[in-house]
## 1
Amino acid sequence: MAPLAFGLAYAGFLALALAMDRHHRDLLGGVPSRMGRLLFRGGGWMLLGLSIAPCCALWGPSFGAIAWCGLLTLAAFTLVSLTTYAPRAALLAAALLPALGLATWFRLS
Amino acid sequence: MKHGFRQCMAWLHTWAGLIPGWILFAVFLTGTAAYYRGEISAWTRPDLRMEDNGPEAAMLGLRELQRIAPDATGWLIGLPTSSDPLLRLYWRPPGERRFRDGILDPATGRVAEAGRTMGGEFFYRFHFELHMPPIWGRWLVGLCAMSMLVAIISGIITHRRIFADFFTFRPGKAGHRSWLDAHNLLAVLALPYHLMITYTGLLTLMLMYMPWGMQLAYKGDQQAFIAEALSIAPPPRPARQAAPLTDLAPLVAEALRRWPETGVRRIGISFPGDANATIVLGRGDRHELAIRRRELVFSGTTGELRLATGNDAPAVQTVGVAYGLHFARFELPFLHVLFFLSGLAGTAMVGTGLVMWVAKRAPKATERRHFGLRLVETLNLGTIFGLPIAMLGFFWANRLLPGMLDHRPDWEIRIFFALWLGAYLHAALRPGRRGWAEQAGIAALLGLLLPAVNAATTRHHLGVALPAGDWLMAGMDLGFLGFGLAFALAARRLWQGADRPVATRQGGHLRERGI
Amino acid sequence: MVSAAFRARMRGWRWPGLLSRIVAAVLGGYAIGALVSVACAVLLPLPRSEAVVIGMMLSFLAYAGVVLWVFAARTAWRAWAGLLAPGLLLAASWAGRPV
């Protein structure tokens, strides 16, 4: 379930980045509309919030919260490296990582 | 007014970060290594590993203590865990205050003679004592940690665009811009970790740093405070009357029945062979976050349970959680990796900050570099690449020094410091990018060849450990390879740009090491 | 680039002022931290081990706060004055403790 949490956190951060003009321009081109910005921002925070659930399910509340902080950091670093060196992969990863996480979860359960 | 306040905080951030910076870098890096202190200790003594931590292991330790220190006033047995798989023995000879220690060789049942080493303890102790007399080292590290706390808070205040720059990294930018980006990212993205580790680090030694409230409330009786806060049974007095020690195995079995998950970590025996002997079993601390002292106290002669100790009061509990976060002793491999990576991020944050100080002030090619700048540059290179070289050299020394060498642990440490000193000298003689490239190259060689040295000197190399699924030995070797590879990439990059002026150094190598 | 306010502030930062600030931050900060730990140990209506532990935990935050204040204050004199006031208050709470 750790890959799922990581994937959700990554997708969440990417959405938050897309709500910002500079990163939106670099990744998708153009600036987001007002509506799009709201959607990106809301979706991003929602995904980040969701990503704590697998952590707590896996490690319990106290270790889960710590693992969540660590995974958020790791996801944000991954996003920054990808957007800098492989922007196209950064977008692809947002779809692939949560899917991969879900797949490993189903395979294990 | 607001503007001025921020500038003041920026000034404070610069100097509170720079002046203790080199010590902080060393504290961070050796502390990060100390997350794998048990594993390092086992890697440095690969033939002494043991898995058993039940009654038989306890009896094995007890028999050896009875043989080597029958008249000791205290015995202590540290049972192995999967991340720290060594059986440690401690004994206090009569008339001495300090315990001596040794590690049991499971093959012979005796304290091991050959291949003595400090192992992971060296990095662990260096991390808060800097290999100085403890009182000096601990105060110095404490002051640096306080400075770090101030630097973190003033850094947050200074960093105006904390959210706008959250994902920003521009490696191609000239001058100090890309260093600033790297420093900001390493600081902001792992901010909860940095704050946590600095504050909880201060808390681990708070009784030494801030004893005044305790002095007043307990009239200077520190033992009374510790006994009350940790709810520890008062130490017994010897009856000076001989009586045989009770059988240990049923007591350990009783403890295992009470603590089926955590097991027993420590067995302490005060005044063995005396009528007032006591046996204290300490609970394992590898399965929960808070480090709390929980003990079962038995009579040493009858084996009757006298006391079960432990304090659940909220403030003491909070400190237990803080210690748990700082030491990260819990055996959850994935979480451990996250802590290790965060520690590297902290190390790299300090390192990028130090390098940035130079990059910001780098003069044009035609100007003279003044003494302060040269000094900082030398200290930077000698610390940022010199310390990893020294640490890798420590592992080389562990494998290559003859097993029966007198004072072998001291020789390992001498080699560590000799390499480190060499790195500072080299940094002073070879300023600029070429010096950085050369040291990165040396670190790369040391890291990449270490698994080969291990293969040549032990039977626990990758070719054996990987097929056997021995992740402790394999993980250490793979880790060395990984660091070697990162340094090799850094060296290549630094070498290619060696003709360019230093000021335009790119963010690559530290970032690769950091994350 | 550098604002007038900042430059005005830097004028008060010549060596004697800076040195005095460093002393105030390092030693004064420690003193305030120590007083906080003592005041908590004495005043908090809790079992004494709890009160002592809380005092120790808060003392480092107080220390950090003092350092920030000392370097944010407009003049070194103000920095010291800002230390004395809470210092006296904490010391008074200690002196007036129930015995």
## 2
Amino acid sequence: MELLKPDLGLMFWTLIAFLITLWLLGKFAWKPILKGLEAREKNIKESIQAAENVKKEMADLKSENESLLAKARDERAQMMREAKETRDKIIADAKEQARQETNKIVSDAQSVINQQKMAALTELKNNVGKLVIEVSEKILRRELSSKDAQEKFIRDLAENIELN
Amino acid sequence: MWLKNLKPLLVATFGIILVVFSTNVFAQEQHTNADSAKKPFDPTTVIMHHVQDAHSFHFFTIGDFNAVIPLPVILYSPQKGLSVFLSSRFGHKGENTFDGYKLGESEKITSVDPGVTVFDFSLTRNAVQMFLICGLFIIFMIKIARKYQKGIGVNTAPSGAQNFMEPIIIFLRENLAKENLGLRWERYTPFLLTTFFFILTNSLFGLVPGVANVTGNIAFTLLLGIVALVVMLAGTTSHFWKHLFWPPGVPIAVKFILAPIELAGELFMKPGALVIRLFANMVAGHIVILAFVSLIFIFGELSHVAGLSFSPFSIIFIIFDYFLEILIAFIQAFIFTVLLAIFTGQGFEGSDHDVAPGSHDGML
């Protein structure tokens, strides 16, 4: 069978063709292609890694933000409470002081009124005593003259007395 | 509805055209092969002529016109030295002698003088076609490689032909090189890729009607087998040879029987299986296609009606076989490369710690 007899010439040319192809492709094709593919794979791997890192950092930042926010909220509540306390204290103090002032003014006024009243009463008493003495003096003088005169006198006196 | 009718119509039209066309060619074929036109159709000669190597690209002959591209004949004889001339010197039927050489049966060049030995280094149609395909493929791949060097496909998405070649390259790198060659994958990947595409491109182009059947030639596959053997042996370690000549775990008497078997298996059967498998698969596909074409003419010799009525069946089978052949071209290129990787991996098994031992079955 001619089909099964290898031809030396064709084997020779096949070897030449194969070696040339191997050399040219190996040097100018496979090397850059494989290098490029590897670079791309490395690039993709690194990109995914970087994305993961960023994601993790974002999560960290978020939790940090949340804790900060909570802290701020607490601080605000604290401040509000303190402010309220201060306000209440100021109001209470003011009220107390006002009450004390009022009391003092009222008591002062009362003592002045009492003093005036006592002075007025004393004067009245003095005036009444004087009048009684005057009346008694006149009555006593009339008694010495006549009975009629006395009576008349009394009557006059009585008339003259103005009960003021 | 008319679309439904269109398909068989197309097949029929195409079939008739093909039959009419190929009738001419084969009639001429007959004419070329036989001295008289009355000589009966001989399918074996026709098929063998198409499958085998030749010293010229012969496309068709109409009347006295021969569509032939003559190819250079390069002969070396220890007695007569080197002689280079075009194959057209032999005449288009090979009837002339030139420089003391004549073109014999199956395109074999012999010396007129029986005392002169001849070594034929002619650039036959297989050789020329192979160089052409390799050249085109090298240009194609270097263009793709330039893109990677420019950063396309590295920093950006791959574009154009990169999308086509990249999955194949990555598949071979991952499943052949890294799987079977362990730590040494980087050294062997260019070789495996070249072997794969060398076989694939030649197989696929060999399917184009009218061109040579390169991968279906035993010389081509034998040389690839020898290259495979050399690469395999170059990577072997002492561990491999120790296992070969002194198989562990068997009685001493058995060792003496086992060693020659192992040696023959490693050195001849493994690469031999590669050589025969690729050759047989590729040549068989071509023979089947040509046999279906020949059937038309065998029937045609009985009567024209029989030949014409059989032609659609032949054409359907030929189309089916063509698709099969495309598939086989890929499969055979892959099988050759994967076995090459496995055999090479077995050669230095045990020397690298990450090579899984004994996990491969060599006989696919």
